[in-house]
Design goal:
By secondary structure, the chain is an alpha/beta fold. Helix content is 29%, strand content 20%.
Length: 324
């Protein structure tokens, strides 16, 4: 005779009494859970937030290392001044963040540093001094950080002439400076003031890189919602077109010397929408790039033998080394 049996959930409830998302489906007499919904970081392609024609986005181990450096240590403001000559000489590698007024720079830095020590405002010109933030934990030599991150006053509308003079002196004369991150509002794209700043950085030979803020508006992302594949693909094309239009400004082809100091990778971030690890979308990539720029990208981590491949082409007689 036929014997039917109702499969019960471990808490004693039958499948019909469970919510649809948690129902057990019987396949080959084995209860199976329905698939979990996609996470936002899984829905957004990594290459969309780390846009490069030549290099790959950081891998999981590199992102974990960057997270450890920035989230396990509390940053501190060690100086806040409007004068270049008043900046402390620490000997630590530095990166500076600069952008038009009201571009979302301070919010981005708070997310990068896992803190809220920088004031944010909807009114342009809120940042009026050069703020030096020590981060990464003690360096073992009596200093409170391994890296200094500088929050610079904005340029353009709401800025002041004297701010520009002091920023120029810093960019030209600061020996500790390793890279300048130019924050650009993804909703608005490059403005004339951005192009002037990029040109000045090229002329001075200062290493610099573009970071797009507020990218969630371009991608049409909403808090707590994961977009469908079709929408992601459509919005990805829009963001890709925006980035490609920028490349001609980042590294002009008028001369072989144009583009000196420009990093071709364009990073895209959002502080309003959260991504991997609960931080702003794409901020984990930015953390890794900051470590890379300051020479701390693999501090405290070990390279496995399988991560490094050495080959000797017979024809060339050269050693090729590749790794993460």
């Amino acid at each position: 005779y036929l014997h039917t049996q109702t499969h019960r959930h471990p808490n004693g409830a039958t499948p019909s009494s469970l919510s649809e998302a948690n129902q057990h489906h019987v396949v080959n007499n084995k209860p199976q859970q329905t698939s979990k919904p996609r996470r936002l970081e899984d829905a957004i392609p990594r290459t969309l937030l780390f846009n490069s024609a030549y290099t790959s986005p950081p891998n999981a181990a590199q992102l974990h290392h960057a997270t450890t450096i920035f989230q396990n240590h509390t940053p501190s403001i060690i100086a806040s001044t409007s004068s270049f000559h008043s900046l402390p000489i620490t000997g630590l590698p530095e990166v500076a963040f600069i952008g038009r007024s009201n571009v979302g720079k301070s919010s981005l830095l708070n997310s990068l540093l896992n803190t809220s020590i920088l004031h944010t405002s909807k009114n342009p010109g809120r940042t009026r001094t050069m703020n030096v933030i020590a981060c990464g934990g003690p360096n073992g030599q009596g200093q409170s950080g391994k890296i200094n991150v500088l929050d610079m006053p904005g340029y353009g509308f709401g800025s002041r002439r004297e701010w520009g003079e002091q920023i120029g002196r810093y960019l030209q004369k600061r020996r500790e400076l390793k890279r300048v991150f130019v924050v650009v509002d993804a909703k608005l794209g490059l403005k004339s003031s951005d192009e002037v700043m990029l040109g000045q950085l090229r002329d001075m030979g200062v290493m610099h890189q573009i970071v797009l803020s507020k990218v969630d508006f371009v991608l049409g992302l909403e808090k707590g919602k994961v977009p469908g594949t079709e929408k992601v693909e459509r919005k990805a094309m829009e963001l890709g077109s925006l980035v490609e239009a920028m490349r001609g400004v980042i590294r002009p082809e008028r001369s072989r010397y144009e583009g000196m100091g420009a990093v071709e990778e364009v990073l895209a971030c959002s502080t309003r929408v959260k991504g991997r690890g609960g931080v702003g979308l794409g901020v984990d990539n930015l953390r890794w790039v900051v470590l890379q720029a300051t020479g701390l990208s693999w501090e405290g981590s070990k390279l496995r033998k399988e991560d490094v491949v050495v080959s000797l082409p017979k024809e060339m007689g050269q050693v090729e080394v590749s790794g993460p």
